[in-house]
Structure formats: C-alpha cells, structure tokens
Amino acid sequence: MSALLEVREVSKRYGGVVANDKVSLTVGEGQIVGLIGPNGSGKTTLFNSIVGTHPIDCGSIRFDGREISHLRVPDIARLGLIRTFQQTRIFRQMTCLDNMIVSVPQGDASLRAMIARPAAEDRAHADELLAFVGLAGKRDLPAGSLSFGQQKLLEFAMALMNEPRLLLLDEPTAGINPTLINGLIERLKRARDQLGITLLVIEHNMRVVMNLAEHIYCLAHGEVLADGPPERVQNDPRVVAAYLGGH
Amino acid sequence: MKLATAKKLLPFALLVLGVVAPFALPTFLVQLTFLWIMIVFALCWDILGGQMGYNSFGNIAFFGIGVYTATIVQIGLYQDVAAYTAAAGMQTISLTPDQYFTGLFVGLAAAPLLAVAVAALLGFALLGLRGHYFAIATLGLGIAAGELAAAWTFIGGSSGVQVPVYPGSLESGRLLFYFLSAGLGVATLLTLRWLYTTRFGLAMNAIRDDEDKAEALGLRTTRYKVIAWCIGAVFLGLAGGLVGHIIGFIDPREVAFAGASFGVWMILMAILGGKGTLWGPVIGAVLFHAMRELFWTYLFGWQNVAMGVLIVIVVVFFPIGILGWLKRRYPQLFARDVPAASRGVVE
Amino acid sequence: MDNLTLLIQAPSLNVQLLIDGVLIGAVFALAAYGLALVWGVMNIINVCQGEFVMLGGYVALYVARAGLNPFLGVPAAMVVLFVVGWLAYRLVIFRIVERDLFISLLATFGLSILLGQLMNLGFGANIETLDAHLGTWFLLGGTVTVAQVKVVALIVTLAIAALIVAFMRRSRLGQAIRATAQNARAARILGVDTDRVYATTYALNAAICGAAGALVAMIWTISPFSGLIYTVRSFMIVVLAGLGNLVGVIVAALGLGAAEQFVGFILGAQFQIAFIFLALVAILILRSWRLRRQRRYLV
To answer: What's the whole-model pTM score?
Structure first.
C-alpha cells in the first residue's frame, strides 16, 4: 500500500503562534486515517496547509509522490485533493443539483468545456450521489434552505462528485443529529470501499473515530503527540492527558 | 399558454416589438434607440455584478473605448486623424456613402476588439483582487480613462471629436441606428441567456456564493472572472461605437467616459430590475429609461439629485429589485415543474 | 520631459515640490484615517468620504464669507459634518452595517452621488477656494516659497490627530469603539451599545473629513465633484499602510502628497488626476501580487 499523502516536518506559524510544529503524517492509498486532538491543536491549520490555503514555513507535502506545498488551492484540488469545511460551505443561492453540477471535476480547462451545457451523465451522477446521501428530495431547492445537517451532507455529496482521490473531511459529524451519525459513518466507509476514495478525517467524536479510522494521529499544541491504531491511541496516557488535562 | 413557454418566447416577442416600435412610435425613435442601449448597459453590468457578485464601477471605460475606436477608425481610413482633431471642429468631414458605411462597419468591428483587449489586460491585473478592492480599483478606471482621453490630443483632447455626418436623410440615419441598437440589444440578451445555462454560468454563480469554496473544488476563478468581464466589454464596446454615431459628437467626459451618467445608470438599472437574473436588468432599463424620459423635465435641475436618492433607496431598501420582489410576492409565477422522483422524502 | 531636466538642474525646485506635497499630504492623512476608522470598526468602505471632505470645505467657505476668521471654519466644519454624519448613519448607514460588503459599497456610492449632486445644486459647480490672508515664507534664498497657511494647516492637522488619538485611548466611548472594532459580538455581550458606537464612529469620521475639507479649502481648492479623488486617495493610503497602522497612514499620506506634486510637475496637471487613479490600480495590483506569493488575499 503506497503512501498517497506524505506530510513531512511541516511547520506553520501565525504571527507569534506556532500552529504546526514539525508535523509528519502519512496516509496510505485506500486508508481511512483519523486526526484528533483538543481544540487549538492545529488540525484545521494542517488541513489548510495540505490543500494550499496558505504556504507552509518549512517541510514538505507530497501527494502521490508529487510535491504540492507550493501549489495553489484550485491546482491542488484538480489533482484530486478535496476538502470539506468545518463551517460547511456550499453555494447557498444555487439549487442542490446545481451545487452538484458545479462540483464536476475540472479536468478539461479549455474554453469549450467551460461553456458547454451540463451533460446528462453529470445530472444522472448528481442524482445518484444526492440519493446516496439522502437528499434526493431537495434536488431543486436552494441549498441555503437546507438544515445545517443537510448542508453537511450536501457538501459531502459535492466532494464525492468531484471524484477525489483523497478527501479531507473537517469534522464531518459535528452538528449532526446523533441518530444520523451511524448513517454517515456507513456512507463514509462505502465511499472508501465502493469509490476507492482515501479519507483523512478530523473528528472530535471519539465513537466516530474509533469506528471509522484504521490509523489515528493525535495532535496537541501543534505537534504530533501519538499515532497508531485506534485502540492504542485511545489508551495512550499522553492522549488522555491532552484531552482531559492541562495545557 | 404556460408560463414556461411564455418565458422561452419572450426574447422573440421583444424582437417583434423592437421591429414594430419605430413605425408605431416614430416620434420617439431616438429615445427608443437609447432604450436598447440602456438594456445593453444593464445586462453587461449584471454579468459581473449580479451573476458573479463582483461590483464593477468602471464598465464605462469599455463603452468609452468603443465610442472613440469606432469613430477614429472610420475617419482614419480615409483622412488624417491628427489633422482633423487638431482643427477641433473647424474642418468638416464628408465621406461618400461608400466610405461612411465601410468605415462604420470596420469601426464597429474594431470597437469591441479594442475593448476586449483592454478588458483582458486589466482583468488579469485586477481580477486577482477580491470583492471590494476590485470595486474601488474600478471606481477610478472610468475617470482615469476620461482624463487620459481628454489629455490625448490625437483623439481630440478635451475638445472631443466630431463624428462623420450620416450621408443620407436624418430619418433614415435614425432608423438605421435604431435597428443596429435593437439588434445589439437582442444579441446581448440571447447571448447571455445562453451563457447562463452553461457550466460557465453555474461557475459564475458559485463564485458569487462562495469564491473560496469554488476554488477548493478546482475552479480557476480568475479565468472565469476575466472572461466574464471580456464578454461584457464586447457588447459595451459595440454600444459605444453606436452611441458615438448617434450623438454625432464625442466629448471625453460627457459622452465617452460619462461615468456620472451612463456609468452610474448601468448599476442602478440592473439593481432596480433585479440583479442576478436575466430579465431583471431589462426591466430595470425599461423602467428607468421611461421614468427619465417622462418625468425628468418636471424635476427642474433636481434630476441628478433624484437619481442619487434613487440609488440609495434602491440599494438599501430594495436590493432584490423588481424581479426579486415579484418572486417573493408571487412565487407561483416562477414555479418550475420538477421530476416526480425528486419529490421523495429525506431519510 | 523638459520639466524633468528642470528638476535635476534646480534642486530647490525639488524642495519646493516636496514641501508642498508633504503639507497637503498631511490633510490626506486625516481623511485616510477616518476611512480606516469606519472600515475597521464597521467594515464599511465609505465611498462618500471625499464628499464629506468637500462639504467641510464649503462650510469653511461660508464661514469665511460671513466675515469670520477662516480658521474658525475648521471647528465649524467639524460640527456640521458630525451632524451630517450622524444623520447619514441614522437614515441610511445603520441599515447596511452588518450586511455584505457589496451592498455597503453600493449604498455609500449612492450617497456619494447624492451628496455631490446636492452640493452642485446648492453651491454651484465652480471651483472655489478660500483666502486665509496669511503670508508666505521664503526659504533657501527665495527659491522656495512656503505659504504660511499650509504650515498652519499642518499644525491644525496634528492637533486634531492628537485629539483623536487621545479620545480613542482615554475616553470610555473611544475604548468602546476599539472593542467593537475587534469583536462586535463580544462587545455587545459585554454591554456595549454597538449601535451608538457605530453612529459615533461614522459621525466622527465625517467630522474628521470636515476638518480636512476646511483645510483643503484654504490651501487648495474645492468643487462639488472633486470628492471622488479624495476617496480614492484615502483608500490608497489605507491600502498602502494597512488598517491598524497610524504611523503608516501618515507616512503613506505624505508620500502620496509628494508623489502627486512631482508627477503633476513632470507630466502636467491634466495627468495628475489620471495618475492618482492609475496609482491606485498599480498599488492594489502590486499588493495583491505580493500577497499572492504568501497565498493570502487582500481581505
């Protein structure tokens, strides 16, 4: 199993604060990797570094063997590295279907492709994915009219529509009704099993992480505190201390 | 007839109206001509302003470029431009009908080309800027263009340029430019109607709703922004070429780069009618132009103040515009049929 | 380009232009600070900033015409403009404060059109100026002239700036303003009346513009439609200096004033206005390219 994403000794500071300090992690192709850690430990900053939202101060980030730390967001996204946002970002004034169509992978950059009408296969695929997340009935409604949980599902469906190789999910279950969380975990696993998408998931919900991830990294104070299979990390005293204890 | 079918036929109804109008209302020919120009103005501003959420205060620059280019090219084909402009109106130009129309044709071809070239250049420079920085940068564009034009003696400086006189009766000249303007208006409408159904249209809306998210999905947003701006520049350049000939005289600040009048109206009309829609700007243009023609004389010098008040009122109290208001008040008029399958329940 | 060689040959000319530029630049700094204030506290870019400046100039004009000491025009303009700003807030601005930037930009743009047209209607379109009846100083053996009124304007500017800084640091309202600028929601939770803060901030900005305008009327000229240039200048200065940077604003403003004088001299007055707008475009582009390498946007 080859490493799809290799983050090596990445550091990032904001003003005086060191958000990430020599963080290294690896995500193998086809894996589901979890990223946990108390608030302020630098998880979202790391995501932002990986997808190119800001440059890193030092270190290297390789995707499929290729250095991407100097690339910009749209270019990294086109390589197949897609992320969802903690606050859930969708296109509020557009219909759910249009949200999906816009998410079609931007492989062909030619003018002709830009001005083409949305293809029937894309519409069909969009409908499939909307059904996959349970939003088929909201197809023609403006995305802004959906509830927060439904918007999260839409964002997930849009990410799938973009045919990513690696999907970075920032707290996918936050704010979702606990009874629906199992369904979401199910779908995430199916996305990996059926669609071959590798997942890197930031999560606060321990039950979700233990259930979902095969390998976990725990961040605290901007550094990697521990990593390994879920049971080991869960019982690591340093991890427990980081969550429960002092700063 | 169902509303959906009615909406499809609307542009063609407009076309028919457009063809019939000059014969039904011959006394209003010039005003009707300008109505079509206003429609082009509003539609072009809305491409970037309404569909993409990028406020441009400087679109008048492309209009002005079109005004000058069409005339200078037309004159330049047959006469020495520098000598003509230096004479500042003392020298008159009479072109033979052949020369006039060839010149007009070539000039009208050159106008949008130059406008697009400038738009592309400026676009790549400015459209990396987000929202309000872009807006303020464009604020200066119109005025800078006007000042530069006023300083450039080759194109007449502040004295402007006298446009070659139409070789024919006043009547036939007006009719010609009416149909050219109407044609431009319909062409703009149909082009944009098509554009908004393509993936490009969706991308524009996505950039409006959340530019960062659009980039995170792989959209190279700058490219879309520049192309959209260029599309507007094409039609604005053409409109400029026409208006220069309709008015007959080009003044750099009052006609070509008339930021305080045309430039502001572009924005007002689009918002008044309903920005971000296809027909909103058209409605806004018709309403605004009608209001101007009918009531302006009653305002005795308060016209421009009234316009300022109007802008503030529309933007602050009525930003969804007429079409937006109609959608809220009578949503059933805008209903679409959706496939039965999508009326399922969320699990 | 003959003017350029003239500059090289006559160093005192450079001094003249520099002094003129710096002195008028000080007034730019006032208007720029006001813009930054409203922007930082209310997240509104006040496109009618320049019109407030012009209005202040007209107040000073009428004070002088009434036979009073022209320098009384400064406090008069500040008072009148404070009221105008307060009214503008209560009627229009409060509705756009926490809405998207698009609307706030268009609304203040509309206000700028409205105010410009009102001034045109009320005061006529002529370019006006105010004679403060002060003398001139001659430096460097008579080759450099410094109008005394300009120096007094600089002193007045510094005094006003000092007052504002003191107000913001010491007074309760000043602190409330700064708190709201940092986090409006938190300020509200802590009991700050943010609406009152916004009104005061906006009115204060108008007053600052009024003072600047009164000074402009004395050392330069005013006219109903010259407001836009001041708005653009203020914006340029704030972009160059950065929002929180008071010293930067002063330096940028003085630099801009000087640059304008030099360009006006070398290329001619008709290019001076075009230069300002093109310089704005250039500054924004340069700034955004530099930030783009750091992958941040001008936000």
So the answer is: 0.89
Q: What is the CATH number of the domain that holds B131?
A: 1.10.3470
- Bridge partners (DSSP) listed for residue A60: A8
Tell me, yes or no, whether A112 and A231 share the same domain: no
**Residue A161: pLDDT band with limits 50, 70, 90:** very high
Burial of B297 (0-12, 13-18, 19+ CB in 10 A): exposed
Average pLDDT, chain C: 86
C27 closest CA partner among C158, C130, C162: C158
Residue B89: predicted pLDDT? 63
Range of the domain at A131: 90-162
Cβ–Cβ of B312/C111 closer than 8 Å? yes
**pLDDT at residue B279 is higher than 70:** yes
Contacts of B199 in chain A (CB under 8 A): 101-102, 104, 113-118
* Portion 269-298 of C in contact with A at CB < 8 A: 294-296
Residue C298 lies in a domain: no
Distance CA B197, CA C210 (A): 50
CA dist C210 and C204 (Å) reads: 10
- Which pLDDT does position A18 carry in this prediction? 87
For residue B209, what is the nearest residue in chain A, using CA coordinates?
Answer: A91
ipTM for the predicted complex comes to 0.91
Axis-axis angle for helices B131-151, C269-293 (nearest 10)? 150
- Chain B CB within 8 Å of residue A114 CB: yes
Q: Is B197 an 8 Å CB contact of chain A? A: yes
pLDDT in tens, C85-134: 999 999 999 988 877 777 888 899 999 999 999 999 889 888 888 877 77
Residues A138 and A242 in one domain: no
Task: Give residue for tokens 């890197």.
Answer: A200
Q: Look at chain C and report how many structural domains it folds into.
A: 1
Residue A64, both tokens: 């499929």
Contact in structure between C259 and C21 (CB atoms under 8 Å): yes
Q: CA quadruple B317, B322, B324, B326: dihedral positive or negative?
A: positive
Quote the DSSP letter at residue C128: B
* Whether A91 contacts A99, CB under 8 Å: yes
Q: Residue A72 domain-assigned?
A: yes
